[in-house]
Amino acid sequence: MSNNDKYEGKWVLLNKKHEVIYYNDDMIKVIEKGGKYPKGDVVIDKKMAQGTCFF
Amino acid sequence: MPHAASKLLRFTFKYQSNSKTPDIPIRFIGKNGKETPPFYAILDSGADEISVPKKLADYLGQSLTPRKNKIHTAGGQVDAFSTKIHFLIGHGGREVEYTDIEACVIDRDMPVLVGIYPVFEDYDITISASSTKFTMVPYK
Questions:
Q1: Of A4, A13, A27, the CB nearest to B53
Q2: Number of domain units in chain B
Q3: Would you say residue B129 lies in a domain?
Q4: What does the pLDDT look like over B120-129, one tens digit per residue?
Q5: Would residue A51 count as lying in a domain?
Q6: What residues make up the domain containing A41?
Q7: Chain A residues lying within 8 Å of B39, measured CB to CB
Q8: Which H/E stretch holds residue B85?
């Protein structure tokens, strides 16, 4: 399983190099984890499989 | 008049690696004072407004007003609510602030969507999928 598959459907926390440093199904846990880092050091994303209908 | 509460800034954003969608950094400030780190939101010219998952709205302590109509999704019907949100777009110390913006809250685990109101109404947005970047130029 590739890393992309591993994170599919998950909320992920990315560092400045866009590496996944934390992930969870629960977005609140990712927000709270991200809040522990200095402003501008992390960004949250939801990993979706290509072609996913998000609506 | 722009919808933004601060001066509009010109932006150029690169797509994330492995992404085929234009994603814009956006962070939120809740009615309860809670702030989020930035999210990558999908820039969606097919959406009327900003849409956020209900879980995020609840975290931010937003008041929610149920909408008359449910949202029809590929996974079935889901509840939708209205709220007024406070957010900033941009990154690296260059941000544009929006306050009291009507948004759609959807009871589904979905990415944040940035639609026509207010961002596309404040900016000329050119998406270049071939060069995997997009530019946002403020309306004069």
A1: A27
A2: 1
A3: no
A4: 999 999 999 9
A5: no
A6: 3-46
A7: 43-45
A8: strand B80-91
